[in-house]
Structure formats: structure tokens, C-alpha cells
Specification:
This protein is α+β, with helices and mostly antiparallel strands. The chain is about 15% helix and about 35% strand.
Length: about 170
């Protein structure tokens, strides 16, 4: 699978349904994925802290992650680990999409969040996905993991690698 690179600033979305950059930084309702991936779409992304003068750069070498977006563009879950290249991230996506029935869900009390919950998915002993956020109630966390698995099985994969610039406070 050939992926292209696009830069997104501070999490704002900037593409139309064909993957072309748009200047408004917003997406309309007609820009949701269609076909078998209706309701779920994987995006591969690269997060960087340095500021460069160019909008587009060669494909990143790492760290690469992916996330699953619901039809409303809300992030449901992210990769369980960082990848050193795009091929590693896309390979993990393929294994996850083909193995959702074998995936094992773990519900965990989130550390330092006053009793909130998060989920993780393991596939063949590998941590492949984790929740994008924490949940106040265990049942909400369990339902969110179930929704992730349902959407992951038939989700489409965006044809580009997105680049997010970390905000000044987020850079490590």
C-alpha cells in the first residue's frame, strides 16, 4: 500500500474525500468514508516537534502510529506501540483487521485518573491497540472496546500519512 504524507496542525483536519489538502482545515459531512469502511477509517500518522518551513516533506522514518476514527471523526483507539516505519504500521493494521475475532480485550484501571478505565487489545500475544481516552465507568470502556473491534474489521485505510505538529507544551 502506497501512502502519501500530509501535515496537519494541532489536530485540525485538512482534506477532502479524495485526500487533497483543503485550506479551511475543516471537513464537511460528505467527507466521511464510504463503502465497506463506512463508519470506520484508519489513519497512519507521524508526530513531530520540530518546525520546518516546508508543508510537505519526504515520508517520515519514525515514530509512526495509527488511529481508528469513527464516522464522526472521533478517535476510538490508537496503535499499541510506535513503529519505526510506515510499513510496520500498515502491517500491524492488516493483522488487526484480519484477526479481530481472535483479539483479546483487557480492561485496566487507568493510573492516576481517579478510578477511570482504559482498554487494550492483544492479538497473538502482541499489544496492537489501546483506547484513545479513559472512561469513567467500566461498562463504557467495555462498550468502547467492542465498538473499536466492530469498526476495525471493515474499516478503510486513509491513503496518506498525516503529520501532526506537537504543540509547544507537548514536545518532549
Amino acid at each position: 500500500m502506497q501512502l502519501q504524507r500530509r501535515e496537519i496542525r494541532d489536530g485540525a483536519q485538512g482534506s477532502d474525500h479524495s485526500g487533497r489538502a483543503v485550506s479551511s482545515g475543516r471537513q464537511g459531512a460528505g467527507d466521511r468514508p464510504a463503502g465497506p469502511g463506512l463508519g470506520g477509517r484508519f489513519e497512519v500518522f507521524h508526530e513531530r516537534s520540530e518546525r520546518t518551513g516546508r508543508r510537505l516533506e519526504p515520508l517520515p522514518v519514525g515514530p509512526i502510529r495509527w488511529r481508528l476514527l469513527a464516522g464522526n471523526r472521533r478517535s476510538l483507539g490508537t496503535s499499541g506501540s510506535e513503529h519505526v516505519d510506515v510499513e510496520g504500521a500498515v502491517g500491524q493494521l492488516g493483522r488487526l483487521m484480519a484477526g479481530t475475532e481472535r483479539a483479546r480485550t483487557r480492561l485496566l484501571a487507568a493510573e492516576g485518573n481517579g478510578g477511570q478505565w482504559r482498554w487494550e487489545l492483544e492479538l497473538d500475544g502482541e499489544l496492537v491497540a489501546r483506547s484513545s481516552r479513559t472512561y469513567l465507568r467500566r461498562i463504557e470502556c467495555e462498550l468502547a472496546a467492542d465498538q473499536f473491534l466492530r469498526l476495525a474489521a471493515g474499516a478503510s485505510v486513509a491513503p496518506e500519512v498525516r503529520s501532526f505538529r506537537q504543540s509547544a507544551g507537548a514536545a518532549s
